[in-house]
Design goal:
By secondary structure, the protein is an alpha+beta fold. Strands 13, 14, 15, 16, 17, 18 and 19 form a 7-stranded mixed sheet that branches. A 6-stranded antiparallel sheet has the order 3-4-5-6-8-7. A 5-stranded parallel sheet has the order 10-20-23-9-24. The chain has 31 helices and 28 strands. Residues 332-351 are annotated as: Disordered. It comes from Thermomonas aquatica.
């Protein structure tokens, strides 16, 4: 069979698309006629659904490629017929990257969309068709929310696979395995990468893309990978218990998982016609099944006709979802219980907490939830490869796109937002500096200010210096400095300030303490990348600059400069001629008469914000960076807060508990801004920061959580899933049923928040021995039970079914003791004393005697 037949078809579609740049509503109408209706709803500033009225050509392609091969083929056939495109229907889509169904659009919703965004995507499309891509166009597209480097290279590949290669989640591991270095997220780097790839292989880009996909398909297909895919395919609809997980399609049809880890089995409402009969198991209405289905997927519950489809590959699951969710299947007669329809564009929640008992994978799954936010395409493409997901997570942590913090009893507002740090100056005087906490630093990065600072030469943590150049009156010396990108101070008779010290020069020794500090700081403490503020008055600045080089002493000053202004710092003046009052930014404090000193209350992010609000246009690259508020703005950032319930939420978040609400974020209609208590600077939370918390319900009951936290976070249950242990046995002891029995009794005695998680037993998959099982019970199960029941040994014995076992197989020994032989104590009642039977941990009978729980089919 001829391969890559899609290439001429996609090219013909591209040529046809050219005519729709000025007729975008008509293009959307074509999509409706073809049968693509999901994903065409826009949202206004009030989050109300409105019809989409503009679209770019890349998004058009993605609305087809988000589907599996069979559905994609049907839709392309309808497009060719409906639009009258002169093209042959392809027989394959080998090498075509699949668009992420969660993030199909290349642009944000209308409330955040700017006029240039869709237009720039059209520019890139037309340039690519002509083979004349401009770097500035490509790079500008990268700044559009929802358009990442992977998506952009995929889309270029769709229309010109002979010239462009998709650098995405499918190809990155393949490239790394062949030691082909990956490009950075820029046109310049991508342009240099393409020739390297050509030289490394004599195959076409389409062949290489297909080879990468084939390599990835060789990975094992498991229940865990199926769940990841279903979470991505039907975002926000998952509900369930430790025994069942259910999803709903946009049309309201239900899917649910069978708990078996040996096969991927999906409960659905009708039988897929494309699966073999052996892969479909009918569940007539009278056949019993998991009783949890009634609460989470009523259409699949007992009393309803259902089917259990066993799937062998991820491609089978994708095909099933395409058929089931997009109209190919006929809906069941009963549609009385449906979940609200999500859209392809449903974003992950800004604030979420994964909660559950110990050992249920909360921290484990923060990797998946983080990648769903920061790099959903990589997650979808590598759902089967835990090592790849972990490595990508580490890369994003290294890039500071994802950050991690653990709450504890002593964690405070000062650690999280900002606080004062005590230091001593060079004269051993105690000074206090405002130090940003982990959350404030992340907000500064996410706002884009940090990246802009790097672009214009400002260091990551610049010190801010107040400087007076020849007082504040009109000055030729100052004018010379601004014109020649310098900062100068006097005391030229002292000589080279970098070399003088106390006792080495009479002129230096004659200076007062303030002046000595000034000349020392100017020559030895001001560093490249620091900020210089030249003042106009006690509250106003007239210029902002960034230090470009080291201090130098000039024996002869230039014409027009004061004769003793021999001390020079190279400074790139970003803006001059200002009349900007920054008293509020400086914590409400006025400048002093000292020539040079550090402004410890001012940080670059607050200063940059003040400049932007005042409409200050910084020069050259700085102007372009600040005007567009940077490549970082819009990129998602994640803060993982482990053990969020162990800290005092009201004390740690303070006033920020309100600011993290989606509607109160920066740029939203109801934006809130607070004045921070230490720096006295205004602060708001960017809309591209996501918070993921984990909460151990055994550590503190969910009911005791601060109500303010509950209202502002989406709580996602993570309960024990004994299904992942199906098939594991140790000398005949079925681990899933044993754990189910233990948890059933714990739930009856103490509540479901105190169950034991399945993760403790996963090591038995690799070593199902009595020694491994003994280690789990000694080091984890029994200590947890002691903590849960506060050493109420009788309840622990009930949980472990000790009363049903022979004495040698009981984990706990009991004996009766009386207070006898003491004066006045002869009639004391008997008391039961308990001890641990260490030998029982190594006896298989101790585990065989644990009463098993019932595992639903």
């Amino acid at each position: 069979m001829t391969q890559f037949t899609w290439i001429p078809t996609f090219r013909a579609i591209a040529e046809w698309l050219r005519t729709y740049r000025t007729r975008q509503p008509d293009l959307i109408t074509v999509l409706h006629k073809v049968g693509i209706t999901s994903g065409l709803e826009d949202r206004d500033e009030n989050e109300n659904s409105i019809p989409l009225d503009e679209i770019d050509p890349f998004t058009f392609y993605c609305l087809f490629t988000k589907y599996g091969v069979d559905q994609r083929l049907k839709l392309v056939a309808r497009l060719i017929e409906t639009a009258g495109i002169s093209a042959t229907l392809p027989t394959d889509f080998d090498g075509v990257p699949s668009a992420n169904a969660m993030k199909v659009w290349m642009f944000p919703f209308k409330a955040q969309r700017e006029p240039w965004m869709v237009s720039t995507l059209w520019d890139l499309f037309e340039q690519a068709l002509r083979g004349e891509v401009k770097g500035e166009t490509f790079n500008r597209c990268l700044t559009i929310k929802n358009t990442g480097f992977a998506k952009l290279t995929e889309c270029l590949f769709y229309i010109a696979p002979e010239k462009y290669f998709p650098v995405d989640g499918q190809t990155k591991p393949w490239l790394a395995a062949r030691k082909i270095s990956l490009p950075e997220s820029s046109w310049e780097s991508y342009q240099a990468f393409l020739p390297r790839l050509m030289q490394a292989s004599n195959q076409s880009f389409a062949s290489l893309s297909h080879e990468a996909w084939v390599t990835n398909q060789a990975a094992a297909f498991t229940k865990e990978s199926a769940i990841v895919y279903l979470d991505a395919r039907f975002p926000g609809t998952r509900t369930g218990t430790s025994h069942i997980a259910a999803w709903h399609t946009p049309e309201g049809r239900a899917l649910a998982t069978d708990p078996s880890p040996k096969r991927v089995a999906i409960f659905i409402e009708m039988a897929p016609p494309f699966l073999d009969q052996e892969a479909i198991e009918p569940y007539p209405a009278e056949r019993p099944r998991n009783h949890h289905l009634g609460a989470h997927a009523p259409a699949l519950a007992a009393g309803k006709q259902a089917y259990l489809a066993t799937l062998a590959t991820l491609a089978d699951l994708q095909k099933l979802c395409d058929w089931y969710a997009d109209g190919a299947a006929q809906p069941s007669a009963d549609t009385t219980s449906r979940i609200a329809e999500p859209t392809d564009m449903s974003p992950p929640p800004l604030n979420q907490i994964l909660f559950g008992p110990p050992g249920t994978g909360k921290t484990y799954y923060t990797i998946n939830h983080s990648l769903e936010i920061v790099d959903p395409a990589f997650l979808a493409a590598n759902a089967l490869d835990r090592a790849a997901l972990t490595e990508r997570f580490r890369e994003l942590v290294a890039e500071e796109r994802i950050r991690f913090v653990t709450f504890h009893q002593s964690f405070s507002y000062e650690d999280f937002v900002e606080g004062l740090r005590a230091e001593t100056d060079r004269d051993d005087n105690l000074v206090y500096k405002v130090e940003p906490g982990v959350f404030k630093r992340l907000c500064e990065t996410a706002s884009g200010v940090t990246e802009a600072a790097r672009e214009i030469g400002i260091s990551d943590a610049p010190r801010i210096w107040k400087l007076s150049i020849d007082s504040t009156h009109a000055s030729k010396t100052r004018d010379y400095c601004f014109t020649h990108n310098e900062a100068r101070i006097g005391w030229g008779l002292v000589g080279d300030l970098a070399k003088v010290t106390r006792g080495s020069h009479a002129g230096y020794d004659a200076l007062g303490t303030h002046n000595q500090n000034t000349v020392h700081s100017f020559a030895n403490e001001v560093e490249v990348g620091d900020i210089i503020l030249c003042i106009r008055s006690a509250e106003e600045i007239q210029a902002v600059g960034v230090v470009q080089g080291e201090y130098r002493y000039e024996p002869t000053v230039p014409a027009g400069v004061l004769s003793d202004y021999n001390n020079v710092l190279p400074v790139r003046w970003l803006a001059t001629g200002l009349n900007l009052n920054i008293k509020n930014v400086n914590g409400g404090v006025r400048f002093t008469l000292k020539t040079l000193y550090e402004l410890t209350r001012v940080s670059w992010p607050e200063l940059a914000q003040a400049l932007e609000k005042a409409g200050v246009a910084l020069t050259s690259r700085a102007e372009s960076s600040m005007a567009r508020r940077l490549p970082n703005k819009g990129q998602p950032y994640v803060l993982i807060i482990d053990e969020i319930n162990r800290g005092s939420v009201s004390r740690i978040f303070g006033e920020l508990i309100t600011l993290i609400e989606p509607s109160k974020r920066a740029g939203e209609v109801e934006t809130l801004e607070v004045t921070l208590p230490y720096s006295k600077n205004p602060f708001s939370v960017p809309s591209n920061i996501y918070l993921i918390g984990t909460m151990n319900t055994a550590d503190r009951s969910l009911a005791a959580i601060d109500i303010a936290l509950r209202r502002r976070f989406q709580f996602i249950p993570m309960l024990p899933d004994v299904g992942v242990l199906r098939g594991i046995s140790v000398d005949g002891v079925k681990i899933d049923a044993m754990l189910q029995g233990i948890n059933d009794r714990i739930e009856c005695l103490h509540g479901r928040d105190f169950q034991i998680g399945h993760a403790y037993f996963l090591k038995l998959k690799d070593s199902a021995t009595i020694a491994a099982l003994s280690s789990i019970f000694r080091q984890q199960v029994l200590p947890l039970l002691q903590e849960y029941f506060f050493e109420d040994w009788q309840k622990i014995a009930w949980v472990l079914s000790d009363e049903l076992k022979s004495p040698e197989d009981q984990f706990l020994k009991r004996r009766t003791a009386v207070m006898a032989g003491l004066e006045g104590q002869d009639n004391m009642p008997e008391k039961t004393l308990w001890s641990i039977n260490t030998k029982a941990f190594d006896r298989i009978g101790a585990y065989q005697g644990i009463k098993l729980g019932s595992i639903p089919a």
